[in-house]
Amino acid sequence: MSNLFDLLVAGLATGAIYALVAVGFTLLWQTSQTINFAQGEFVMLPAFLMLAAMHVGAPFWLAIILGILLSMILLGLAFKLLLVDPMMRHGVLPLAIATMALAIGIKEAVKQFFSAEASPFPSIVPTGDISILGHAVSLQSLGVLVVAILAVLGLTTLLNRTSLGHQMQAAAQNPTVARIIGVPVERMILLTFLINAFLVALASLLITPIYLAKFSSGEVLGQAAFIAAIVGGFNQVRGAIAGGLLIGVLDNLAATYVSTQYRAAVPMIFLIAVILFRPQGLLGRAEERTV
Amino acid sequence: MSGFAKPLKIALGLAVIAALIIVPMNFNRYGLFILSQWAVMSIAAMGLNLTLGYAGQVSLAQGAFVGIGAYAAAIMTTHGWPLPAAILVAIALSFAIGWVLGYPALRVQHHYLAFVTLAFSTLAFLVFRNESWLTGGIYGISNIPRPHILGLATNKPLPFYYVCLGSLAIASLAVWWLIRSPWGRAFMALRENPLRAQSLGVDTRRYTLMAFAIGSALGGVAGALYAPLTQYIDPVPFNLSLSLDLLMMVIVGGAGFYFGPFLGAMIAVLLPEWLRFTEGYYLMLYAVAVMLLLIWSPTGILGILDRYLAERRTKAASALRAVAKSRLETVQ
């Protein structure tokens, strides 16, 4: 029993990080039909930006702030202006391919300018265990969970409770009508890109102490986020959250109870099953088909 | 491409074929390897172009079919079977699996389909890696023999390059014939407007599965040539990134254009090699080049040519109109 409890906590912690990445992914899809194949690399990069800031002498807290700001400029603003804007009107596929190329570019740049080796990364939460209900729970898992939950709560409050959030939703759901009633659609789309950049930087900060900073670590992360987004429902923020948590737990349970060799297969089979039997995702709404 | 006169086109085609046969004769071993790789990847990309460019079904699993073909060929030829038999098995196997993978395409479209095929790709990779009784696991299969064709050994790089080039020629002719057949037209109808195609009596169900199966079978052929080309295979080359690379080749070359995959494969295989002199930067430059190209022309390289020809035709037509109009006016 104690083993299962540990697995669940660890699974929820990684799942919460996947959820952050998946939420950003669905936000981009909803507002601009961008399928960002570089999302995993987007999570990998901010950790290196923070490491670079520390390398030139910034203390850890300053490095975090600089890393997040730089991510928002590079992965939010520059990504939208330089790559997404010129390609958006040409359909989903060319843009998706361009983000694949971007993924290769980011990976190679990090390998070339930083290091091909894995680098350790400081944790924002102290290591150690605390006891909950008689179980030892690692502070790191708990810290990750708390930060991720706060971020998600903050985001859903922004989206559902504020005028800004409503404008963003309007821009996503029906840009034409939103424009007519005076929503600055372009600015709202830019805002979702900035939010996505913030979320991936946060995810980077949370996950890198666990898995080390490595140029190739984006592949696994990106895939987990895709799966989480699809399983939960491609067009729903809360779906992406549920999907992220589910995939995190499933992944951890599969590693113990299935086999380490086929651990990666479990989320994939789950994904295929969801797409075949409930293509709109567990919490998603069906998309209308038009002639 | 209809802007050129027909004899000119034929002459150009013959010149390219002659160059592909004659020029590599004094290439070194590595140059021939790269060129053979281009031929093999062109076959795989051509298959994906059929599925994606003509029938409009997104597949992120073409790399897995190259893997299936490669393992089929590696296992059979190391057990003493001739390569042509292995190619036939690779075709049959990829065709059957591709057909089955087409079933999700009947239910879901676009990005959902992309993700089902992405999941399949990962599953195939896991099978290659983990079923070591069959595939040799992470150690792979080595000493894959190259075939004897009509009694001639093709162990040397040049003869084997001709085997790859000949296979590419056969595959190209088959695809050329296919897209001009009623099937090809049905594929395009599927891409342009599935509902209208259905209402016109096209069995969309069968053609969707067909598009997947035939495209995958070409992936299998490419794999069956890849194994004797490298003479050693392990699971790593057949992971998801190969599928993504093949997709990139098709889009960069120009999806839905017959010559798109050849150009796309050329860029994906040769451009990184040409950029090697930049050492660590070559893949970065390659990525930037692909992004710039797609920003400039989202329909790929042939899209640029297509637009240019279309523009020239409209200009020529309006010039003709202007001439005709002024003539009319002088007559009056």
TrEMBL record, chain A:
- Share an example GO biological-process annotation for this protein: amino acid transport
The UniProt GO MF terms for this protein read: transmembrane transporter activity
The subcellular location is: Cell membrane
- Asked if the Swiss-Prot or TrEMBL record annotates the protein with the keyword Iron, the reply is no
| Alphabetic keyword roster | Amino-acid transport, Cell membrane, Membrane, Transmembrane, Transmembrane helix, Transport
Provide the transmembrane region boundaries: 6-28, 60-79, 91-110, 130-159, 189-212, 224-250, 262-281
Topology within the bilayer: Multi-pass membrane protein
Gene Ontology cellular-component terms for this entry are: plasma membrane
The UniProt entry, under PANTHER family, shows:
ABC TRANSPORTER PERMEASE PROTEIN, BRANCHED-CHAIN AMINO ACID TRANSPORT SYSTEM PERMEASE PROTEIN LIVH
Q: Which family does it belong to?
A: Belongs to the binding-protein-dependent transport system permease family. LivHM subfamily.
Q: What is this protein called?
A: Branched-chain amino acid ABC transporter permease
Source species = Bradyrhizobium vignae
UniProtKB/TrEMBL annotation, chain B:
**Mitochondrion among keywords:** no
The name this protein goes by in its record: Branched-chain amino acid ABC transporter permease
Which organism is this entry from?
Answer: Bradyrhizobium vignae
Keyword line: Cell membrane, Membrane, Transmembrane, Transmembrane helix
Membrane topology note:
Multi-pass membrane protein
InterPro entries in alphabetical order: ABC_transp_permease, LivM-like
**TM regions (residue ranges):** 7-27, 33-52, 83-103, 110-128, 160-179, 207-226, 246-271, 283-305
Q: What is its main location?
A: membrane
Cellular location(s):
Cell membrane
Pfam families in the record: BPD_transp_2 (PF02653)
